[in-house]
Amino acid sequence: MSDTAIININGEAFEFPIITGSENEKAIDIKKLRGLTGGVTTIDPGYKNTGSCQSAITFLNGEEGVLRYRGYAIEDLAEKADFLEVAYALIFGDLPSKPQLEKFENDIKDNSLLDVDLRKILEAFPKSAHPMGVLASLTSALTAFNPTSVDVSSDEAMYNAIVKIMGKFPVLVAWTMRKNKGLPLNYGDNSLGYVENLLQMMFSKPNETYKINPIIKDALDKLLILHADHEQNCSTSTVRIVGSSHAGLFASLSAGISALWGPLHGGANQAVLEMLDAILQDGGDTAKYMAKAKDKSDPFRLMGFGHRVYKNFDPRAKIIKVAAKEVLDDLGVDDPILEIAKGLEQEALKDPYFVDRKLYPNVDFYSGIIYRAMGIPTEMFTVMFALGRLPGWIAQWKEMRARKEPIGRPRQIYIGENLRAFKNIENR
Ligand code: SDX
To answer: For the chain, what is the total number of helices (H) and then of strands (E)?
Structure first.
């Protein structure tokens, strides 16, 4: 393939460089398009064909169903690493040595206390508030207690902001769930590891001794790893574009949480469980719901299916499907919706509508089955996704600022009214 692209406009040829990534991906560099062509731009709703940046963090190959963080295969990381190791690799570029990991974990623990006044903000929410709205608000509220925006030119200041949010976010996650369940708010126990501590904060009761279940701890660690980053998805692009205005890290993360909430994105894991439950209540008639998903006049979609990038199996869904069976068997949970999910998957993989559109189960299709088996309320599923995605958001924000990316400001094609004379109200 040549290393330039020619665009002909009104008989004039304009040449643009083609850049090649380390995995041989190609992109036409149109940075100079508007200037060279006297104002012509491109348009690409949803940015389906448009790259926003060059990044060294995560590589996806949607056609082959490949996912790597910093060059490491997701299958290896899910099997052999723990969440903090993966978080470190995403944020700082490689897997940590033992001393680096110990320091990272200790610095996170040292930063895991929340200002007691944050409780007052949480208490002001009704119990019925959706945990994602609470989490986005509390994350943004952290700026009130940490008013100085991080000086990205200082590695130390950046590191301190990172361990601060990595330490405080799990407490916010636990508090949103305890608020939702009417449980008293608590704090972490620094004698525990990151995921054990999260479980303890989420599930412990003041009148009982909480016992960590290693099966749940391992499954949650794996789920957090599988959600940790996914290149330029909707919420990550939100974190990057908000950060591109030089808004602070916590404010950018709060915006990412709001973007993740949508049912077409991270909110899908909650929507999948609600869909599977509806099918179960409806007598398990999967064929009826498949027909609804294919009916263009019906807004119903098969939640947890399809993906903007993966036109093959989402490698995370493959891993989570196996883990779901293991966790339910290990916990002795017999959840009929697992069979419904498998039935839907089998039918979809044979159905021309899904096959022709390359619609496969994505990360959200099976994850909720595990969360439910762990005793996590459905409304908390997307909060768990946000916790997993935190290191990815941090890594992407940090990379964007380090590369001094320009403020994100897309153009448009105007299709409104042409110039018209003002009319006084008497004449309208
Ligand atoms: C995540 O981007 C990421 O990386 C996201 C994520 C991450 O880790 O950050 O992977 C996490 O968000 C996973 C996706 C979770 N969302 C869902 O499961 C919701 C259900 N899926 C769809 O809404 C949809 O598949 C999207 C939003 C995920 C992708 O939509 P696209 O890429 O814009 O594709 P599209 O809507 O243009 O669909 C192409 C065709 C259309 O039919 P035609 O117009 O060609 O006839 O496929 C159909 C769509 O109607 N289609 C579906 C479908 N998904 C797509 N039809 C029925 N059920 C579905 N789920």
So the answer is: 18, 6
Give residue-wise pLDDT tens across range 360-419.
999 999 999 999 999 999 999 999 999 999 999 999 999 999 999 999 999 999 999 999
Helix axes 336-350, 364-373, angle to 10 degrees: 170
Q: Is the CB of 302 under 6 A from ligand 1?
A: yes
Cβ-contact 122, 135 below 8 angstroms: no
CB of 344 closer than 6 A to ligand 1? no
Percent of the chain with pLDDT over 90: 98
Question: Best mutation site among 74, 359, 367 for ligand 1, i.e. most ligand atoms within 8 A of its Cβ?
Answer: 359
What is the average per-residue pLDDT within 62-67? 96
Q: Whose CA is nearest to atom 24 of ligand 1?
A: 306
Mind spelling out the 3-state secondary structure of 315-353?
A: HHHHHHHHHHHHHHHHHCCCCHHHHHHHHHHHHHHHCHH
pLDDT for 148:
83
Pocket test for ligand 1, best of 74, 235, 238, 307 (most atoms within 8 A of CB): 307
Report the chain's C-alpha Rg in angstroms: 23
pLDDT level of residue 295 (50, 70, 90 thresholds)? very high
pLDDT, tens only, 211-268: 999 999 999 999 999 999 999 999 999 999 999 999 999 999 999 999 999 999 999 9
Task: Give 108 Cα–ligand 1 centroid separation in angstroms.
Answer: 36
**DSSP assignment of 296-317:** TTS----TTB--SS-SS--HHH
CA distance 289 to 297: 13
Quick: pLDDT tens for 342-357: 999 999 999 999 999 9
* Average pLDDT over all residues of the chain: 96
CA-nearest residue for atom 27, ligand 1, is: 264
Which segments of 151-285 does DSSP mark as H helices, in order?
155-181, 194-203, 214-226, 234-243, 249-261, 268-281
Nearest CA to ligand 1 atom 47: 357
Long-range CB pairs of 8-16, under 8 A, 24+ apart, other chains included:
9/37, 9/40
CA distance 178 to 376: 11
Encode pLDDT of 147-169 as tens digits.
Answer: 888 999 999 999 999 999 999 99
**Type and span of the H or E element at 75:** helix 74-80
